[in-house]
Amino acid sequence: xxxxxxxxxxxxxxxxxxxxxxxxxxxxxxxxxxxxxxxxxxxxxxxxxxxxxxxxxxxxxxxxxxxxxxxxxxxxxxxxxxxxxxxxxxxxxxxxxxxxxxxxxxxxxxxxxxxxxxxxxxxxxxxxxxxxxxxxxxxxxxxxxxxxxxxxxxxxxxxxxxxxxxxxxxxxxxxxxxxxxxxxxxxxxxxxxxxxxxxxxxxxxxxxxxxxxxxxxxxxxxxxxxxxxxxxxxxxxxxxxx
Amino acid sequence: xxxxxxxxxxxxxxxxxxxxxxxxxxxxxxxxxxxxxxxxxxxxxxxxxxxxxxxxxxxxxxxxxxxxxxxxxxxxxxxxxxxxxxxxxxxxxxxxxxxxxxxxxxxxxxxxxxxxxxxxxxxxxxxxxxxxxxxxxxxxxxxxxxxxxxxxxxxxxxxxxxxxxxxxxxxxxxxxxxxxxxxxxxxxxxxxxxxxxxxxxxxxxxxxxxxxxxxxxxxxxxxxxxxxxxxxxxxxxxxxxxxxxxxxxxxxxxxxx
Lengths: 242, 257
Hints:
By secondary structure, chain A is mainly alpha-helical. Chain A has helices at residues 4-18, 30-43, 45-77, 79-92, 101-108, 112-136, 140-148, 153-191, 196-205, 209-237. Chain A has one domain (50-237): Orthogonal Bundle (MetI-like fold), CATH 1.10.3720.10. In chain A, α3 (45-77) runs parallel beside α6, α3 packs antiparallel against α8 and α5 packs across α6. The model of chain A has no long low-confidence stretch (mean pLDDT 90). The longest helix of chain B has 39 residues, at 164-202.
C-alpha cells in the first residue's frame, strides 16, 4: 500500500504514450520497455555489461574504503599524519571529482583501470573524513582506560578506536556508495567502452529508445537496491549498539 | 604561547600543500613521467594564466557556473516546496514519500540520455540534469526540518495572533532554516559534479566540455589547468555557502560557536 504512488506513476507511464498524450518514441510505454529489458537480458548484453560495471564499482569502492578508513584513522591517531594529510584533504574536498575522469583516462587509458581509479578517487575523501571525525570523536576516557589496563596502542586502535568510529565510518561509506555509482556511470559515458553507462549511451545514440529506458531503469534499480542492502548491512554491523 | 601555537599550526597547514606542489614540480622536472602524463606545476599555472588572458577559460567557467547554479536554484525552489508540502499535507506525503525514498539513492546521472532525448543537447538538458540530481537531498532535509519545528512554538505564535501566512514566513521557515540549508550545502556540489559530467558527455561548451576536448587532443597541461580552475571555483562555492549560512543564521545559536 505504501508504494501505491509508484503504481500510479507506472500506470501514467503506460497510459500517456498509449493515449497519445506524449509521443511513443520519446516515452515508450512501460510494457514496451519491460519487453526490451527481457530482450537485453536474453541477448546477454545486460549481464555482461552489468558485470563489467559491477566489477569496476566494487573494485574502486573497496579500494576507497580500505585506503580511506586507514588514512582517516591514522590522521586521528598520529599527529604527523594529520598535519601532513589534513590540509590536502581540505583543499581537495571541494573539487568536483567528476573533473578528474579525463586525467584518469590520460593516465590509465580507456579500460577498466581508469574507471576503477575514478570511482576510487570519488569515494576516497568522504570515507577519509568520516573515519577521521569518527576516530577523533572517540571518548578519550575509553582510550586511556584501555591503555592503563595494559593494552598496546595497536590493540587500542583495533579494539577501541575502530569500533567506536564505526557508526560514522558506515555513514561515510553510504555517501561513498552513492558517489561511486555517479562516477562509474559518468566514466562509462565519457570513455564509451563497456559497462551499463556505455550500453545506455550506445542505445540512446542508436535510437533504440525502449532498450535505453530499460538500461536506465536497470542502473537506477541496482543503485537503489545497493543502498537498501547496505542499510541492512549497516544495521547488522551496528547491532551491538543499544 | 597560545598565539605562537596558532601561528605554528597555521603555517603547518600550508607546509604540506607547498611540499606537495614542490614535489609535483620536482618529479615533473626530473622527467620521472613523460610531460604528457605529468606536466609540471609551473607549466600548468602558466597555461592557466594563458587561458585566462586569451579569454578561453572564463567564458567556459561562466557557462558551467550558470548551468550548475540555475539547476541548483530549480532544485532549491522545488525541493524546499515539496519538502514542506510533505511535512504539512498528508496527501503530499503519501504521494512523494515513496518516490523520494526511491529517487534519493538512485544514480540520477543514468538519466542523462533520457534528458537528451526529451530536451535536446543544449542548456535545458544540462540545467535540468543538475536540478534533478540535486533536488532529492533538498526535499529530504526540508521535510525533516519542517517536521522538526516545535509545535509549541507554532501554538504560541498562533495564540499571540499570528496569521497563517505569518506562521509560515516568520516562524516555521526560519526555525527550519538551519536544516534546510544543510540540504542545500549537500546539493550544490552534486549539481556541479553532474553539470561537469553532462558537459563531458554531451558537449556544448563549459569547462567539462573543455577538459574533455583537451583530453581527446592529449593536451595534458590544458586538462590540468582546467581542473585547477574548477577546483578553485568549487572551493569558492563551498566557502560562499558557508558565508551565506553564517549571515542568514546570525540569530541562531550555531552562529555563536
